[in-house]
Design brief:
The chain has 427 residues and is an alpha/beta fold. The protein has helices spanning 21-32, 84-97, 187-198, 222-232, 270-275, 298-311, 313-324, 350-353, 413-426, and strands spanning 9-17, 37-40, 67-68, 71-72, 102-103, 108-113, 124-128, 131-140, 147-148, 162-165, 179-183, 203-206, 216-217, 220-221, 259-260, 266-267, 279-281, 284-287, 291-294, 347-349, 355-360, 364-365, 384-385, 388-389, 394-396. It is globular, with a radius of gyration of 23 Å. The two termini are 26 Å apart.
């Protein structure tokens, strides 16, 4: 560990790294507690990671789930879904509304414990692209969508193939003429596939392990039930969506159900995409002299995707409805669907298929490369209890499964931010 940079510096009680939804929610509660603080945001404009979504993107959670502290949705369409630009503007308005002290265009290059012999302020030395800071407390609120993950096999593709991660995809016009391979069937992969289909593009889709889910279940949007279980499940003895119930720490990074907020909100069914002309394939495994190689298990993958909701989420929701005594309609019967493409194929020639571009919808990794403090576990996740790390004065907010399933969502990030801000105030 090298020594913090010498020279002029700013001093503040609490620095919040990131001004997305987690950082702004933390700022709201710090202000309520009267804690002096500053938010540092590397982007030139507010709007968080929503600015990295494609042009046709709609928020996957309904408007009723917009529950930021001090500002909840009270419009005429609680069950509708906001488009990308409206989401971005909403967060900018929220920052103005709570008068968040944000310094934009500021990249964090290093966070280390301060040298107590060289400063009267114990805590942390923070180096940035716009000067250095000393702070008693630091809140890591830079989110879970920082480092796009691309498999090493991407390097094997011919140079003339245009490659984009979903992070950089905006619309079909970015891509050269020809067929497109989308790798990954999480929410991004499914929605981008539909975007390409709507533009009349030929699409090949590599199926991952993400589960499908109904957009509506037992009379409500699926997120309504997930939100209720997150909030009230423990009161009724239903703890399946609390972090303590995860089978392993790695489960924090499992993909979310395959649904969309577009067109008023809908489910995305892989077999339905196949019927609409999408060429479905197994897991992408690499290339072999200009030939794409996929796992030869597409039928099994489709069956697992369809079964995923029933194996976990459905069980938890049904248990909550019963335990809470809610008078909900019975679960809808889903007819068996055995459709399969005639020749799924484990090998596909790039030239023969006319594929000219690949979109990697393969998720993100956490990025705490600036953190010069040994507080990360083997998954690059801060070791913590309710957002309070094992290093006094260092906190984290807005990560998946921080305290429960929906900790990183607009609906529940405020609850973790409130706890962390209260802890800071109590110091």
């Amino acid at each position: 560990m090298r020594s913090p940079a010498a020279g002029p510096h700013n001093e503040v009680d609490t620095l919040v790294i990131g001004a997305g939804q987690a950082g702004l929610a933390t700022s709201y509660w710090l202000t309520r507690h009267g804690v002096e603080h500053q938010l540092l945001e590397q982007r030139p404009e507010l709007g968080g990671a929503w600015q990295d979504r494609w042009s046709s993107f709609y928020l996957n959670t309904p408007n009723f789930a917009f529950l930021l502290p001090g500002w909840t949705y009270d419009g005429p369409e609680p069950d509708a879904f906001l488009p990308r630009d409206a989401v971005i503007e909403l967060f900018r308005n929220y920052a103005r509304r709570i008068m968040a002290p944000v310094l934009l265009g500021t990249e964090i290059t290093r966070v280390a414990e301060a040298d107590s012999s060289s400063t009267t302020l114990s805590g942390f030395a923070v180096e940035t692209s716009r000067g250095n800071w000393l702070a008693r407390n630091v809140v890591l609120a830079n989110g879970a969508y920082q480092r796009p993950r691309v498999p090493a096999s991407a390097a094997e593709l011919p140079r003339h193939i245009r490659q984009l991660h979903s992070h950089d995809y905006r619309n079909p016009a970015q891509l050269p003429d020809g067929a497109v391979l989308v790798v990954g069937t999480g929410q991004s992969g499914g929605q981008i596939t539909e975007d390409l289909l709507a533009a009349g593009r030929e699409v090949h889709l590599s199926v991952s392990a993400c589960p499908e889910a109904p957009r509506r279940y037992r009379g409500q949007d699926i997120f309504y039930w997930l939100l209720q279980v997150n909030l009230h499940g423990p009161h009724h003895g239903i703890n399946g969506l609390q972090v303590e119930q995860l089978p392993s720490p790695a489960a924090r990074f499992l993909c979310n159900p395959l649904i969309s907020g577009n067109d008023g909100g809908h489910s995305i069914r892989l077999r339905d995409l196949g019927r609409r002309g999408v060429r479905l394939h197994g897991h992408f495994e690499g290339t072999d002299d200009g030939v794409l190689v996929f796992s030869d298990d597409l039928p099994t993958r489709l069956a697992l995707a369809e079964a995923g909701f029933g194996q976990r989420m459905k069980v938890i929701i049904d248990a909550y409805i019963a335990a809470a005594g809610i008078d909900a309609p019975p679960a809808e019967t889903v007819p068996a669907d055995e459709w399969l493409p005639v020749e799924p194929g484990a090998r596909l020639g790039l030239d023969a298929a006319g594929i000219t571009s690949v979109i990697w919808s393969t998720g993100y990794g956490l990025d705490f490369g600036f953190l010069d403090i040994p507080v990360l576990d083997q998954w690059n996740y801060p070791r913590h209890s309710r957002g309070v790390t094992e290093v006094p004065g260092l906190y984290t907010v807005g990560l998946p499964w921080l305290t429960r399933h929906a900790s990183s969502t607009v609906a529940l990030v405020g609850a973790d931010a409130e706890y962390v801000a209260g802890h800071i105030a109590a110091r």
